Amino acid sequence: GAGVSQSPSNKVTEKGKDVELRCDPISGHTALYWYRQRLGQGLEFLIYFQGNSAPDKSGLPSDRFSAERTGESVSTLTIQRTQQEDSAVYLCASSLSGASGNQPQHFGDGTRLSIL
Amino acid sequence: GENVEQHPSTLSVQEGDSAVIKCTYSDSASNYFPWYKQELGKRPQLIIDIRSNVGEKKDQRIAVTLNKTAKHFSLHITETQPEDSAVYFCAATSPGFYFGSGTKLNVKP
Question: Which residue has the higher pLDDT, A101 or B106?
Answer without folding.
Answer: B106
